Request: fold
Amino acid sequence: MTNLYADGAQILAVAPMMDWTDRHCRFFHRQITRDSLLYTEMVVADAVIHGARERLLGFDPCEHPVALQLGGSNPAKLAEAARIGEGYGYDEINLNVGCPSDRVQSGTFGACLMKTPELVAECVAAMKGAVAIPVTVKCRIGVDHQDPELALDILAELVFAAGTDALWVHARKAWLEGLSPKENREIPPLDYGRVYRLKQKYPNRFIGINGGIQTLDEAAAHLGHVDGAMLGRAAYHTPAVLTGADALLRGEEAADFDFAALIDVMADYAARHIAAGGRLGHVTRHMVGLFHGHAGARRYRQILSTDANKPGAGPEVLRHAFAAVDLGAASEAA
Reply:
């Protein structure tokens, strides 16, 4: 298995997002971009060890390269969960040190770990000792009243010393006191310069950036300063933004994307999922924003939001929705 971080190549990634980047979402995104790194939703280490592993960890081979994001703060449990993840074939194990949700606060992990960087380093060292694949960390620039200059430097120094292969930084503070998880994605100001300065301090370490990146042009601008750029909500809500990702990474002009072929692949995938006992809506809920900006996109969204969730809905609903789209015309009302 190739170490994604071994050759110094730049990386574009789709961020791990709770309730969104499940296996169906990742399969869909992989049909749009072959080269971008995909992440699972955060999975708690205890769930990996004791839960329904195939449901939690199973993925389609086409998803490679794909990383498993773990949540937790117990080094031994994280090491065991990492070993299990490696056994499932993941290309990377990532430790969540950035999620501000109530769930992670009650479990004392996620962004809470920014307050205990020594423990983060212990977790990284334990996971590195358990697996041969890359172990990485995704963090914030700080939490609550921490000074981001000091807090991020301390965390980076400790996790790099512990052996982490990469540090992905969401360029916002997380406010665990007074802001909801949604507000934490929007209210704390972005400070891309802080992440750039971290890269200047560690020129030979992989530093990736996340937070508020809306377009590939913005991602390309960040790649002039750091090693990786990660798109989150923009990639989910307007997935067509990913159509030029591979060309950007290869330094090529983006070719026209074959949306008809994409729909064919996704309809076939949905049919297999339904035959296995699933529902069409499990797949199509991730595809609602695909044609944002095109004439007919509103009708496409309406069909997927209603008909795809009806009992017995089949892949023909997706084809019917696609038929409403005029790819040759843009519409402000789309």
Notes: The longest helix spans residues 259-275. The longest strand covers residues 135-143. The domain at 259-330 is CATH 1.20.120 (Four Helix Bundle (Hemerythrin (Met), subunit A)).
